[in-house]
Amino acid sequence: MTYVVTDNCIMCKYTDCVEVCPVDCFYEGENTLVIHPDECIDCGVCEPECPADAIRPDTEPAMEEWVEFNRKYSEIWPVITQKKDPLPTAAEMDGVPGKLAKYFSEAPGEGD
Description:
The protein is an alpha+beta fold. Helices cover 22% and strands 11% of the residues. The relative contact order is 0.31. This is Ferredoxin.
């Protein structure tokens, strides 16, 4: 099992999760985060830290695409280990459906 970031992180990018990760497996894009599924040790400490409820275990239904999404971008984006302010759009975008198709950016974030 691994944990993955899903589309509710897009345009929110809360980073509470990165500070509690014991293996530094979060990577930062311009407007979202991802978890490297091969680096995640399945400890689960990140999941309850996400205010947007965007971190899910890969054992939930329809998570295969998110595992591959997280893998793809974690291999090209910089690692993030320190908490930053969420995006200015976080409060209004939390829970908006269809963010992957409408708002996702492939651009990398700044990392640490």
